[in-house]
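dumping the sequnces here before i forget
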Amino acid sequence: MRGLVRLIWVEFLLQLREPFAAFFALAFPPLLVLLFGSIYGNEPKPELGGLGTIDVAVSGYVGMVIATVAIFNLPISLAGYRERGILRRLAVTPLSPFAVFLAHLVSLALLTVCGILLLVLVAKVGYHLRFLGSLSSAIAAGALGGITLFSVGFALAALAPTARTAQVASMLLFYPMLFLSGMALPREILPERIQRVAIFLPATPVVTLLRAAWENTAWWRNEPHALLALVLWTIGSLAVAAWRFRWE
Amino acid sequence: MSSPVIDVQDLRKTYGSTVAVDGVTFQVEEGEIFGIVGPNGAGKTTTIECLEGLRRPDGGSVRVLGRDPARERRQLAAHIGVQLQESALPERLRVGEALALFASLYPRSLDQRELLAQLGLADQVRTPFAKLSGGQKQRLFLALALVHDPTVLFLDELTTGLDPHGRRTVWELIRAIRARGKTVLLSTHLMEEAEALCDRVAVFHRGRIVALDSPSRLIARTVGNLLVTLRIPDSSPVPPLSAIPGVRSVEHRDETLTVYAEDDRAVAAVVQRLVEQGVPLRELRVSSGRLEDAYLTLTGTPLVREES
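..and the predicted 3d for all of it:
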C-alpha cells in the first residue's frame, strides 16, 4: 500500500516535469480562457441562453483537459514505460501488474482534476464563470467521460508498439476531436455534415454530457445517444486493450 | 546438507525456431558467488530471466529458495534482488526518488543514504536518471537491487559501463554482501571479473553448459596452470615443445611464443629445451594461467596448436 501511494505520487510528479504534457493539461486551457475572455468578454448573451462566451466554452475546455491527459499523456507514457523496460523492472518487485496500472491511472486522474480545477479557477476569478447545473451531475458526467477517454487511451497504448507511434496515433485522434467534438469550438458553428461525422469521435459524447450538465439538463435522461456512444467506446476500447496489451 | 538456493534442472527455452537454452543443469549453494560466462546469444540472460520469473521455461524445472519463479514471482520478489541487463527508469526520475520508491515497495529496506554513499552516488541524489553517466546508471540499478536486503541476488552484466575503479568498488560490495551470507548469481563478459569474484563459473556456449568449476580448476583443466611467454622473431624456427610432458599447447603469434604448461616441472623442461636449441631467452616470463584463455578454448576459439 505504501509503495502504491508512493508510485502514484512519483508518477504524478513525473507528469508535471514533462513540459509538453504539463503545458497542455494544466496551462493551455486557462490560457484559452484568458485569450477568448479578453476578446469576447463574458457578458450574458441572449443567443447563448443568457450565458456568456466563457461560460459556454469552459464545459468544452473541461472535455479538452480530460482528452489531453487520456489521449496524450496516458498512451505515450505507458508505451514509453514498456519500450524502455521500466514495466519489466517493476515486474520483479512485489508490486502486482495491476497495481502498476492502477498507479498510472490514479496519477493521471489526479493530473486531470488539477487541470480542471485550474481552468475553473481562472475562469471564475477572471470572468466570473456562471454555472447553472448541479455539481454532482457535472462530476458524474466528467467521471463518465474520463472513464471512456482513458479506456481509449489504454487501447492506443496497447496498439502502439513504441512511444513514438503512440504519439503519432494520439495526434491523429486528438486534433480532429479538438475542433470537431466541441472542445475548442462550439459544435453548432460547424456545417451539418461535419457534425454528423463528429458524432463518431469518442470525445463528442463526452462534451455533449458536460455541456448538458453545465446547462442543468438531466443528461442521463435527455442524452441517450451520447450515453450509448460512451458505453460502446468504453467496452470496445477495453476489449482492444485486454486483447493487445503487452508488458514488454 | 541443506537444499541449494538455486536449482536448475534440464532447463529449456526456445524462441520460435531458435533454441536459446538447451538443457542446462546447475545448483547454487547458500553463500556462493556463482558466475555465468559465455558469448552473446549463449543463453545467459534467458537463464537468468527464467530464474527471476520474467520468462516461463519450455522444459525442465527451475527453483529459487524452493519456489517456482514463474508461478510464485510475487512471493519470491521480496527475497530476490534483480539487476536486469537492459533496463531504464523514467528520464526525469531523480536518484533519491528512485531509491525511495523501490524501498517503499518492500516490507523492509536498508539505509538509503548509506547505500548511495557505498555506491558513490551520494552527490547524485537529486540528479535525474537521464543526466547520469553510464556507470552511474549501472550503480543506481545495483542500489535498486540491494535496497531491500535480498537473500539472493541476480546481476546480469554486473559491471558493464563501469570504469576500472568503479568495477573494483562494486566487487568489494559484492564480496561484503556474500560475507553476510547472501547468495549471488551474476553474468559477465569480463573473465577478470569472474576470476576475481566467483567461487564457481559456468561457461555457456550455444545454450549449454560446456564447463562448470572453480576458476582455478577450469584454468588448470583447460589450459594449464602456468603460462610461459617469450619473444621469438616470426622468422626464427620454433623448437618442438608440444611433445614435452605437461605442455598443453603452444602458440606463436606476433613474435610472441606462448606455452601453456601444467606445472613447474613442465616449465623447467620447456626452458631447458629452449636453451638446448639455442633460442635466446629474451623477455621470458612465467605467469599464472588465465581464465580468459580457458574461456576462449571452451567456447570454440581454440588456441593455435603448433605442429612439430
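The radius of gyration of chain B is 23 Å.
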